[in-house]
Write a sequence for this structure.
């Protein structure tokens, strides 16, 4: 087709190709979720429904988009890791970010009522997104460790803070004052000595966040086939393997997870 004289405007588009060989990480985060959580009655410090909805949205992103090998989520954020060799949309950063964030956002609205049965969605939520490139496996592991350490630090603080307020009768500012400058061990002590809570027994989904990875599973399905000796058809059981996404709430900072799931970094 002949080109119009306007065609030249295409050259104004910036080249945002992600560097070859790097892991492409897209992280999204709820916009102003402090307010969103308050207005939608999220339980403090953790709302199971909100976390499950976030993971449902992440699952949808991984199923709909190509080349995502692992995702990690906590609080109002989720990170998606595209394989190093991905050439999806010619590795354009804007495509990675916009597809992840829009698929996630529309899923959040679409699936809201499945998780918040008694709470209407009061206004349209938004999410920001960014892309970060990690050139080595160690960098990628450190990135995920950073997000999980963040989950742990915030959750220990929030669990202690809300125990002091909800069970200890302190005001928000009194609880804040009491926790100022405390180390992790001191927060553990407050929880255990004052509230009989062993932090290590708190649900893993709160302490560790959620990891989504692909698993090969063997399925047996019933199938109807026709053969020369059974032209009218017969039922047979066939085995097939398929990839299924599974959630985990485990430590990704140590080596164990990466040894047990070595296919993630192998990236063939
Ligand atoms: P931003 O991201 O700069 O637009 O602002 P926020 O307000 O989203 O701040 P951010 O992302 O640093 O912190 C996440 C907020 O979301 C935090 O204030 C608490 C809230 N949030 C996340 N998950 C839960 C939950 O399960 N329960 C409650 N009550 N709040 C939650
Ligand atoms: Mg946020
Ligand atoms: Mg923020
Ligand atoms: Mg956040
Ligand atoms: Mg189009």
């Amino acid at each position: 087709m002949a080109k119009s004289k306007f065609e030249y405007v295409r050259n104004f588009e910036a080249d945002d190709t992600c560097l070859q060989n790097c892991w492409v990480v897209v992280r999204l985060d709820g916009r102003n979720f402090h307010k969103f959580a308050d207005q939608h009655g999220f339980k403090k410090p953790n709302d199971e429904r909100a976390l499950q909805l976030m993971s449902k949205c992440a699952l949808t992103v991984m199923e709909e988009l190509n080349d995502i090998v692992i995702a990690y989520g906590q609080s109002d954020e989720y990170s998606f890791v595209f394989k190093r060799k991905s050439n999806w949309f010619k590795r354009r950063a804007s495509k990675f970010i916009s597809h992840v964030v829009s698929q996630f956002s529309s899923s959040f609205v679409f699936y809201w009522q499945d998780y918040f049965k008694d709470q209407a969605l009061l206004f349209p939520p938004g999410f920001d997104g960014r892309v970060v490139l990690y050139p080595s496996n160690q960098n990628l592991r450190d990135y995920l460790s950073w997000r999980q350490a963040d989950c742990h630090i915030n959750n220990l603080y929030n669990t202690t803070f809300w125990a002091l307020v909800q069970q200890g009768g302190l005001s928000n500012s009194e609880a804040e004052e009491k926790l100022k400058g405390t180390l992790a061990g001191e927060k553990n002590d407050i929880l255990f000595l004052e509230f009989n809570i062993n932090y290590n027994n708190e649900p893993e989904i709160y302490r560790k966040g959620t990891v989504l990875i692909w698993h090969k599973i063997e399925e047996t399905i019933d199938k109807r086939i026709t053969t020369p000796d059974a032209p009218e058809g017969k039922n047979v059981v066939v085995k097939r393997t398929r990839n299924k996404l599974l959630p985990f709430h485990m430590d990704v900072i140590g080596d164990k997870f990466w040894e047990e799931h070595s296919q993630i970094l192998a990236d063939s």
